[in-house]
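Mods, move this if it's the wrong board.
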Amino acid sequence: RDRVLARLGGWAVVTGASDGIGRAFAADLAARGFPLVLVARREDKLRELASSLETSHGVACQVLVADLATTAGVQ
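Not the wrong board. Structure tokens:
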């Protein structure tokens, strides 16, 4: 984990983090100690996930609400 963090930097960005495979990736990365930027459209689900991961794994989580399927969301 430390070698990966050193090579890739400190934060992992997970899109679609509010549900499904994105949520699973976020949980796996948090369990490995990565601080996370969680991105999805549903703020309530993102905040719930961030709180859960911070509590259970002691990692920092930032929430970014965006619909990456739209130009505005990408900007």
